[in-house]
Amino acid sequence: MRLIEPDWGISRNIKAFVTCRGHGFSKAPYNSLNLSNQVGDVDKSVEKNRGLLDLPGEPRYLTQVHGNECVPACRASRGVKADASFTAKRNEVLTVLVADCVPVLFANKNGTRVGAAHAGWRGLANGVLRRTAEAIGLSSLSAWIGPCIGPCHYSVKRDVFDRFPTDLGFKEISMNRWEMDLAGIAEAQLIGLGVQVYGGGFCTFCDEENFFSYRRDGKTGRMGAFIWIQ
Ligand SMILES: [Zn+2]
Fold first, then answer.
1. Domain spans of the chain?
2. Would the CA dihedral through 153, 222, 31, 24 be positive or negative?
3. Prediction pTM value
4. Less packed terminus of the chain by CB within 10 Å, N or C?
5. pLDDT tens digits, residue range 77-116?
6. Do 110 and 135 touch, CB atoms closer than 8 A?
7. How far is the CA of 151 from the centre of ligand 1 (A)?
8. % of the chain exceeding 70 in pLDDT
9. Distance of CA 213 from the midpoint of ligand 1 (Å)
């Protein structure tokens, strides 16, 4: 299984990775390491895929709704509608599932608190990253931006553009069309909060071999971003 591990100089007791799409059990169009049981894949395949992950406990899967709610991990479980969670407890595995939206993993410098957030344009517009960072605590906080759709493959119209206070992260490409840089906007928001930012530079749409992309394929699987305190 191919995993992407953040390179962010954080305390070594923090474990984190994002899965890629290969080496799982799901059949097309979810091939193959799909981790979501809400996208139409066979439950058995998802279960087997989840079973391949080397984790210290059952991950706290959320019901993601493109909102801005960040819940403590003890309240995070299937059925809880939230797009982010945080914890200070060891071996409590946080996760968000993505296929174009931005996964953001958080940890403080001494490795005592972590968080995970899922942010598409709605989440970014509604402040999910700020709420997550504040829930964890803003002092000496680092964040890593995982694989999401790049501006090369993400254009939006005025309804999205107008939801943001500035044109930072947008490039006008034609009448009523902007290229939108989700990772760039996430980074700017985090820097504005005083968070040290790492990662970025991926495009899920461009890299079909490694990533699911909702914009590219429609019906498709989800990668998972995971973080915990060892
Ligand atoms: Zn691209």
1. 3-149+196-229
2. positive
3. 0.97
4. C
5. 777 999 999 999 999 999 999 999 999 999 999 999 999 9
6. no
7. 7
8. 100
9. 10
